[in-house]
Design brief:
The protein is of the alpha/beta class. It is 32% helix and 30% strand. Among the domains are: 153 residues, 3-Layer(aba) Sandwich (Rossmann fold), CATH 3.40.50.300; 67 residues, Protein-tyrosine phosphatase receptor IA-2 ectodomain (Alpha-Beta Plaits, 2-Layer Sandwich). The chain contains 11 helices and 16 strands. Helix 5 runs parallel beside helix 6.
Length: 315
């Protein structure tokens, strides 16, 4: 990876981006930098401004305010030059009904100075045997893989993916994750939007959480999770019920919430497992309450999202 002053070089720079539609401000003062070779995710509920932000960076929409640089170029003053060097997979893509995959990729490749042959593109996404097929003959997962192949027809330096796995089954989603990771391994930079928190947590080096047109948090998934008040949850099943206030008082400084649904089963949100668990075990032992089952779960990016926005993501 290229470095500038000892740090990874910025390939996308967004400063105070604003995009309005009449009285609605869809993107409201968004700023971030994407470094070379990373996968950068933008997550948020429907209407948060994710797609508008992406399309404005790509040059598909014009910003009302702000500065956007892609590979050192103003993406709206130098739109043609930028488009030669980026790849775009839109949220919904339409292809020619009666052209074969080979012919579609040949056509798309003709728009660029640099192009990759259809055979190698389809091989990279596991569709080499479908080279003479029509798009409508592909399964949903195969269509998404073909869409990914089409987005890298010009061997782009920066790839933009808008909700790349929406509507896919879990196996197809995982397959696409592997393909995206493989593309990044070629020293490509990837910016994607998603409403799947597990996708962002597994794929992305850094994540920006958007809500109502603004970025409300931006960091690595690990640091976002560590920033929660209670990043761990203890699941307890006891031999007999105990009073909730008693459990809450065991390690008051590290326990933030105790819940029980069935009398003997408890969910305890804690800031520190090492502080809470020994005290809890000692307390239960002193009162002759037996632990039937115990597990510890770490919080996820979805917990961060819910804590910051109070909204549930829906497919």
């Amino acid at each position: 990876m290229k470095r500038k002053g000892g740090a990874l070089e910025a390939v996308v720079e967004v400063e105070n981006l604003v995009r309005r539609y009449g009285p609605l401000t869809a993107v409201d003062g968004v700023s971030f930098t994407v470094r070379q070779g990373e996968i950068f995710g933008i997550v948020g509920p429907n209407g948060a401004g994710k797609t508008t932000t992406l399309e404005t960076i790509e040059g598909l929409q014009k910003p009302d305010e702000g500065v956007i640089k892609v590979l050192g170029l103003d993406s709206h003053r130098h739109t043609a030059a930028v488009k030669q060097r980026i790849g775009v997979q839109l949220q919904a893509s339409a292809y020619f009904d009666f052209l074969k995959l080979r012919e579609i990729l040949d056509l798309f490749g003709s728009f660029y100075h640099k192009r990759l042959p259809p055979e190698s593109l389809l091989a990279r996404v596991g569709l080499e045997e479908k080279i003479d097929s029509l798009v409508k003959e592909l399964s949903g997962g195969q269509q998404q893989r073909f869409s990914l192949a089409a987005s890298i027809v010009n061997d782009p330096e920066v790839l933009f993916l808008d909700e790349p796995t929406t509507g896919l089954d879990p196996q197809a989603r995982r397959s696409l994750w592997d393909l995206i990771s493989n593309i990044r391994a070629e020293d490509k930079t990837i910016i994607l939007t998603t409403h799947y928190m597990d996708e962002a947590q597994n794929l992305c080096d850094r994540v920006a959480i958007m809500d109502s047109g603004r970025i409300v948090a931006l960091d690595t998934p690990e640091k976002l999770i560590e920033g929660l008040e209670a990043p761990f949850q203890l699941h307890l099943k006891l031999s007999e019920p105990v009073d909730l206030p008693k459990l809450e008082g065991v390690a008051a400084q590290s326990i933030t919430k105790v819940e029980s649904d069935q009398g003997r089963e408890y969910r305890i949100q804690v800031s520190s497992v090492s502080d809470t668990l020994p005290r809890l075990l000692n307390n239960l032992a002193e009162t002759n309450v037996q632990i039937v089952d115990l597990s510890v779960d770490k919080a996820t990016l979805e917990d961060v999202f819910l804590a910051l926005t109070g909204k549930e993501l829906r497919d």
